[in-house]
Amino acid sequence: MIVSDIDCARCDAVCCRLTVVLQSDDDVPARFVDVTEAGLQVMARDEEGWCVAIDPARMCCSIYDTRPEICRRFEMAGPYCRSVRDDYEDRGRRGIPLAMY
Ligand code: SF4
Ligand code: SF4
């Protein structure tokens, strides 16, 4: 069995600081939705960049069962996961102003 060196349980939920653009089939509570200047519906983020749907006490998604399609497609230990984690480390574990489309 191959054991990955990457695990969400040992991560700062880096991917939950990315911009999540909502798709037409997504159904998330309106209080979690923001609209960009370009008119895109996105998951709202707090002043530190965290998606507002994250449960800060448990550091997990509070709407996991109805999370957006983009979040569902995000693969733990996949290329994009590794890329954002590396970028996060390079920035001294601070915010990562990346977009996810
Ligand atoms: S998918 Fe990757 S970046 Fe997101 S919480 Fe899991 S390990 Fe961290
Ligand atoms: S909706 Fe959930 S999985 Fe998606 S970025 Fe927000 S907290 Fe993370």
Q: What order do the helices and strands follow?
A: EEEEEHHE
Strands across the major sheet, in which order?
1-6
- Main β sheet profile: 2 strands, parallel
Q: Any ligands, ions or cofactors bound here, and which? A: iron/sulfur cluster
Mean pLDDT: 88
Tell me the strand percentage band.
5-15%
Principal-axis shape:
globular
Q: How many helical elements?
A: 2
Cα(first) to Cα(last) distance is 33 Å
Enumerate the spans where pLDDT stays under 50 for 5 or more consecutive residues.
none
State the secondary-structure class. alpha+beta
- Which oligomerization state do the chains in this entry correspond to? single chain
Helix content: 10-25%
What would your notes on this structure say?
The structure is a single chain. With 101 residues, the protein is of the alpha+beta class. The protein has one domain (8-100). The protein has helices spanning 69-73, 79-90, and strands spanning 19-20, 33-35, 41-43, 54-55, 60-61, 99-100. The strands form 3 sheets. A two-stranded parallel ribbon has the order 1-6. The structure holds iron/sulfur cluster (SF4) (2 copies). One iron/sulfur cluster binds at residues 6, 8, 11, 13-15, 74, 76, 81, 84-85.
Distinctive features:
two-stranded parallel sheet; alpha+beta; binds iron/sulfur cluster; two-stranded antiparallel sheet; 101 residues; 2 helices; 17% helix
